[in-house]
C-alpha cells in the first residue's frame, strides 16, 4: 500500500500546487484591473480570495479529475514511467492552456466587464476576426507574454520537481513493502479509488448541495461588482460550455439600429420626480383568460374590481413562459430570447441595472419577497443581482404551519407578512412579492376547501384563492399610512400552462396576461388602456410615471410615452414571435416564416408570408425586429446592458 499512497499523495500535491498558482493569477487579475475594483479593502480582498478557492477547486478537478483517476488506478502506477510521462505531459498541456485563459482576462476583463465565458472560444475560432485582432493585441500587450510564459515555465518545472521527488520516494520502497499479495489489498485500493472519485465529483460540483455551483453562485459571497475576483476564467468557460450562445447580428449600422430601437431611455417630462413607494405583485400563472379581460368566466372578482380603479393594460403580454424568465423581464426589462433563461445562461453574470438598483440610488429601501423555499429558481441570487437590499423567503417567514407542502407559504398569510415587512421599511420603498399558491399542484388551505369556484381545471380554484389573498392584502394595506403614496403594479410571471380555450393554449394567447397600474392617491391613473404592452415595458413605464429624469438601459418602452415604439418580443424553440406595426411575425433563421395582421388575425388564420414582400407595414416591422435583435444580442454578448457612468 505504501506506493499506492505515494500516488495519492502525488495527486494531492499537484492539485494543491495548482490552487497556489490560481491564487497568484487571481492577485494578478486584481492588480491589472484595480481601477475597476476601487474601495475594496485588504480584508475584503482576502475574503474574496478565500471564497475563490471553492471555484478554483471546481475548475481544477474538472480539468484534471480524469488524470487523477488514472493516477490512482488500483495498481502501482508510479512503477510505469512511460505512463507517468504521458500523464505528466497531459497535465502540463491542460493546465498551461487553463492558465493562459486565466491570464487573458487580466486584459480582456476591461473590455468585457465579466470573466470570459465560452464566447471567447467562439471569438478565437471565428472566421478572420481573431486573426485580424491578434496582431494588435500582441502589439499592445506584448509585455504580458513575458510573465505568462515565465509562470507556465515555472509550473512545468514545479511539476517535474514533484514528479522526481515521488519517483525517488517510490524507488526507495523495497519490493516486499508494496507487493500486492492478496485480493484484499486490491479491494482496499479499489475502495480508496471510489472514495477519491466521489470526492472529485463533490469538488467539481462545489459541494454536496442539490445544484452544482455555477457562475452566479459568486454573488452569494460577494457584491456583484466583485464577483469577477471570486471567479476564475477556466471555471467560467467550463460552466458556460453548454450554454446558449448568442450570435452577433449586423443587419444595419448600430447607429441606424438605435434610431429604430433605442435601449437608452431618458424621460424629460414636465413633472418632478415623485418618490412614491413602488410595490410590484407578481402572481404565479395569472393568465388573462382567468380575469374579466379574457372574455370567459372570471375567477378573479377582486382583481376585476381593482381594474376599474386602475390603469389596466388589456393588450399585455409576457415575454416568456417560465417564472425565471418573467422576473428579469418585469424588474430588469430583459426579455427571454434564448433557449434558457438569462438567469441560468452564460450571460447571467452580466452587469445590468434593474428597477430596484435604480431606485436604490434615489434613496429607496428595497426588498424582494418570495414565499417559496429559499433558493427556489435561484430568485434569492437574482434579487441580489437586481439590487434588492433584502430577500425574504420561506426561511425568513419561519412558520411551517403555513407551508403548503409543495412550493412554499400559502399566499394569504405570506402577503400579510409582506405588509408587516413594508411597515418596518423607511419610505420611499420599492418592493416585489412573488406569489406561489397558484402553481401546480394547486394546494389550498383546509379551511378554504370548496370556497372558490372550481371551474374546469384545478388552477382556476387556486387562482380564486390567490385573488382572495390579494383582496385581503389590499384590505390591510389600505389602513397603512404609506398606502396612498404608493404605486401598485400587478401582473403575472407568465401565463398558466393550463388553458380551457384554444386561443389561450397556443399562439399569442399563451403570452397574454393582465398588467395593472393602481395608485390610490392618483385619480388620474385610471382607464382601460389598449396600448400594446409587454413585461419589459413595466420598468420604463414605472420610471416614466414617477418622473425619473436620469438615463437608464431598457429593452422595453414606456406605455405612457407615445413617441416610443410599441412591440412584443418572445422566442420559443428557436422561433421569434414579434408583434409590431400592425403585424405578428414569426421569424426563424432571420426570415419571416409566418405573418398575420394584428390584432385582426390574432388567431393566426390567414398567413400572409407569400405576399410579405408587398406589405410595407410588415417589412417595417421586420426591420424593427432586426434592429431589436441586433441591439439585444450585442448588449448581452458585450455586457452592455447599462448606461456607463460619466
TrEMBL record:
Binding site for Mn(2+): 284, 493-494
Domain Sulfatase N-terminal: 276-548
A matching Pfam family: Sulfatase
GO cellular component: plasma membrane
UniProt keywords, alphabetically: Cell membrane, Hydrolase, Manganese, Membrane, Metal-binding, Transferase, Transmembrane, Transmembrane helix
Compartment(s): Cell membrane
Species of provenance: Taibaiella lutea
Name of the protein described by the UniProt record: Sulfatase-like hydrolase/transferase
GO-annotated molecular function: hydrolase activity; metal ion binding; transferase activity
Amino acid at each position: 500500500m505504501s506506493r499506492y499512497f505515494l500516488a495519492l499523495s502525488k495527486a494531492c500535491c499537484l492539485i494543491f500546487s495548482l490552487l497556489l498558482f490560481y491564487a497568484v493569477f487571481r492577485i494578478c487579475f486584481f492588480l491589472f484591473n484595480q481601477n475597476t475594483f476601487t474601495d475594496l479593502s485588504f480584508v475584503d480582498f482576502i475574503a474574496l480570495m478565500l471564497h475563490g478557492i471553492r471555484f478554483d477547486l471546481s475548475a481544477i478537478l474538472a480539468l484534471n479529475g480524469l488524470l487523477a483517476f488514472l493516477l490512482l488506478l488500483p495498481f502501482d502506477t508510479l512503477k510505469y514511467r512511460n505512463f507517468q510521462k504521458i500523464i505528466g505531459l497531459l497535465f502540463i498541456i491542460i493546465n498551461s492552456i487553463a492558465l493562459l485563459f486565466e491570464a487573458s482576462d487580466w486584459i480582456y476583463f476591461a473590455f468585457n466587464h465579466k470573466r470570459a465565458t465560452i464566447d471567447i472560444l467562439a471569438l478565437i475560432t471565428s472566421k478572420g476576426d481573431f486573426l485580424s485582432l491578434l496582431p494588435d493585441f500582441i502589439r499592445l500587450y506584448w509585455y504580458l507574454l513575458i510573465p505568462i510564459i515565465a509562470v507556465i515555465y515555472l509550473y512545468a518545472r514545479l511539476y517535474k520537481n514533484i514528479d522526481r521527488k515521488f519517483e525517488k520516494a517510490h524507488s526507495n520502497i523495497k519490493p516486499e513493502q508494496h507487493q500486492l499479495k492478496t485480493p484484499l489489498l486490491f479491494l482496499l485500493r479499489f475502495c480508496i479509488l471510489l472514495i477519491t472519485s466521489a470526492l472529485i465529483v463533490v469538488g467539481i460540483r462545489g459541494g454536496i448541495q442539490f445544484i452544482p455551483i455555477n457562475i452566479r453562485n459568486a454573488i452569494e459571497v460577494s457584491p456583484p461588482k466583485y464577483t469577477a475576483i471570486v471567479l476564475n476564467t477556466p471555471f467560467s468557460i467550463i460552466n458556460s460550455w453548454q450554454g446558449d450562445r448568442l450570435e452577433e447580428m449586423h443587419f444595419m449600422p448600430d447607429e441606424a439600429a438605435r434610431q429604430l430601437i433605442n435601449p437608452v431611455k431618458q424621460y424629460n417630462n414636465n413633472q418632478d420626480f415623485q418618490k412614491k413607494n413602488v410595490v410590484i405583485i407578481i402572481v404565479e400563472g395569472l393568465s388573462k383568460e382567468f380575469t374579466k379581460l379574457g372574455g370567459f368566466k372570471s375567477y378573479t372578482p377582486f382583481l376585476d374590481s381593482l381594474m376599474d380603479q386602475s390603469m389596466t393594460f388589456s393588450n399585455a403580454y409576457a415575454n416568456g413562459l417560465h417564472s425565471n424568465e418573467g422576473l428579469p423581464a418585469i424588474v430588469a426589462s430583459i426579455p427571454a430570447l434564448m433557449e434558457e433563461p438569462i438567469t441560468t445562461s452564460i450571460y447571467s453574470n452580466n452587469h445590468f441595472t434593474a428597477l430596484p438598483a435604480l431606485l436604490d440610488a434615489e434613496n429607496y429601501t428595497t426588498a424582494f419577497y418570495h414565499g417559496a423555499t429559499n433558493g427556489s429558481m435561484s430568485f434569492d441570487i437574482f434579487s441580489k443581482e437586481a439590487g434588492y437590499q433584502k430577500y425574504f423567503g420561506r426561511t425568513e417567514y419561519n412558520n411551517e404551519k403555513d407551508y403548503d407542502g409543495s412550493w412554499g407559504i400559502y399566499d394569504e398569510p405570506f402577503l400579510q407578512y409582506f405588509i408587516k415587512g413594508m411597515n418596518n421599511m423607511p419610505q420611499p420603498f420599492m418592493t416585489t412579492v412573488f406569489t406561489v399558491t397558484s402553481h401546480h399542484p394547486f394546494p389550498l388551505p383546509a379551511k378554504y376547501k370548496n370556497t372558490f369556484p372550481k371551474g374546469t381545471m384545478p388552477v382556476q380554484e387556486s387562482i380564486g384563492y390567490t385573488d382572495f389573498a390579494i383582496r385581503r392584502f389590499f384590505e390591510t394595506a389600505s389602513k397603512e399610512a404609506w398606502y396612498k403614496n404608493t404605486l401598485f403594479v400587478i401582473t403575472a410571471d407568465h401565463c398558466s400552462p393550463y388553458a380551457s380555450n384554444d386561443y389561450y393554449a397556443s399562439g399569442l394567447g399563451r403570452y397574454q396576461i393582465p398588467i395593472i397600474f393602481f395608485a390610490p392617491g392618483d385619480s388620474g391613473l385610471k382607464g382601460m388602456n389598449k396600448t400594446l404592452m409587454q413585461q419589459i415595458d413595466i420598468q420604463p413605464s414605472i420610471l416614466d410615471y414617477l418622473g425619473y429624469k436620469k438615463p437608464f438601459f431598457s429593452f422595453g418602452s414606456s406605455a405612457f410615452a407615445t413617441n416610443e415604439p410599441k412591440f412584443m418580443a418572445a422566442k420559443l424553440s428557436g422561433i421569434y414571435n414579434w408583434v409590431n406595426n400592425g403585424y405578428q411575425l414569426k421569424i426563424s433563421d432571420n426570415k419571416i416564416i409566418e405573418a398575420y395582421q394584428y390584432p385582426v388575425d390574432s388567431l393566426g388564420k390567414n398567413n400572409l408570408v407569400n405576399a410579405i414582400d408587398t406589405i410595407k407595414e410588415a417589412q417595417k416591422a421586420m426591420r424593427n425586429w432586426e434592429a431589436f435583435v441586433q441591439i439585444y444580442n450585442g448588449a448581452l454578448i458585450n455586457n452592455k446592458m447599462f448606461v456607463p457612468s460619466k
